[in-house]
Amino acid sequence: MAEHDHAHTSSSSRGRLTIAFGITTTILLAEVVGAILTGSLALLIDAAHMLTDAGGLLLALYTANLVTRPANSRRTWGYGRAEVLSAIAQATILLGMGIFVFVEGVKRLINPPEIASGSLAIFGIIGLVGNFASIMVLTKARAANFNMRAAFLETVNDALGSAAVIIAAVIIAMTGWTRADAVVAMLIGVLILPRTLKLIWETVDVLLESTPRGLDLASVRTHILELPHVRSVHDLHATQISTGVPVLTAHVVVDDDCFYDGHASSIIDDLQKCVAEHFEVQIEHSTFQLERAVHANHEHANHA
Fold first, then answer.
1. Residue ranges of E strands in 188-244
2. Is 128 exposed, middle or buried (0-12, 13-18, 19+ CB in 10 A)?
3. Rg (CA), the chain
4. What's the Cα-to-Cα distance from 138 to each of 31, 107, 237, rounded to whole Å?
5. All domains in the chain, ordered by first residue
6. Per residue of the chain (304 residues), what is the pLDDT tens digit?
7. Strand partners, 251
8. Do 42 and 120 form a contact (C-beta atoms < 8 A)?
9. Which of 24, 87, 208, 289 could form a disulfide with 150 if both were Cys (CB 3.0 to 4.6 A apart)?
């Protein structure tokens, strides 16, 4: 992706996050007022949930600005990995909220509080409308990077929470069964946890410098070995700096003649073209060290 494309994507993400943050903050303030006026504990808890998610969106917005900073001699890859750290922070918050909802739900099943169902439904509808607007704003950009995926998950989580408030309010109004609030809340917590855990796993994979998903290193090795003059490959590593920035390095043993007849430079071109175009995960950042066969005598025994 060209540099201006990255800039355009980042600018679009910041704009969408700003709108989503504004909507979420407005809903938060409305729910706080509603909780004070109605005395609804359920609405107050949902407001606390919105406060957490507003903080998550603010973190995502800050990160979206941070990653636009250029690389320097201290941070040669820039601040791209900040989006991974932000996504982990947001996913951890969501995980914590899911656990809290479940624990609080159990408490409410044992001792259900009095809930004003009418007021609860009204503010639940206000929240759902606002959350739906945020989802529409973030939907197109949710696949842009880990940061945007985490922000999108938070708005979906908010919408589910608002829907739960409405459903609980309807059940309570029709049956008087106040435990419905706890049951619905726990169900929402169960639904959001798998996606949150998946996001955490994927971002931790990046921090552990695992091979990017969709890239088969065995296939890469085989394809490199098929290139003319290549005799062997070792120290083959692939990792991911941030979303859309995979990196690959390798030591490639070539025929001795290549260092004397001018083939070395063309082999570098062939190797970089190979990993940039041949595989599903296209790697634009690749570094190859060309070696003679006798260089193996100087390599560490663990290199493979």
1. 230-242
2. buried
3. 26
4. 22, 34, 34
5. 3-207 (1.20.1510.10), 217-298 (3.30.70.1350)
6. 444 444 444 566 777 888 888 888 888 888 788 777 766 656 666 676 677 677 777 777 777 777 778 888 888 878 878 778 877 887 887 788 778 778 878 887 888 877 767 877 888 888 889 888 888 888 877 776 676 777 788 788 778 778 877 888 888 888 888 888 778 777 777 777 777 788 788 888 888 888 998 899 999 999 999 999 899 999 999 999 877 789 999 999 998 888 888 788 899 999 999 898 888 888 989 999 999 877 655 565 555 5
7. 234, 289
8. yes
9. 87
- Vertex 198: Cα angle to 197 and 201 (nearest 5): 85
- How does strand 245-254 pair with strand 285-291? parallel
Which amino acid does the sequence have at 20? A
CA of residue 100 relative to chain centroid, distance: 22
CA distances 292 to 149, 226, 233, 289, Å, are: 45, 17, 11, 10
Q: Where are the beta strands (DSSP E) in the chain?
A: 230-242, 245-254, 285-291
* Nearest by Cα to 6 from 137, 145, 151: 145
The closest of 299, 304, 229, 239 to 268, measured between CA atoms, is: 229
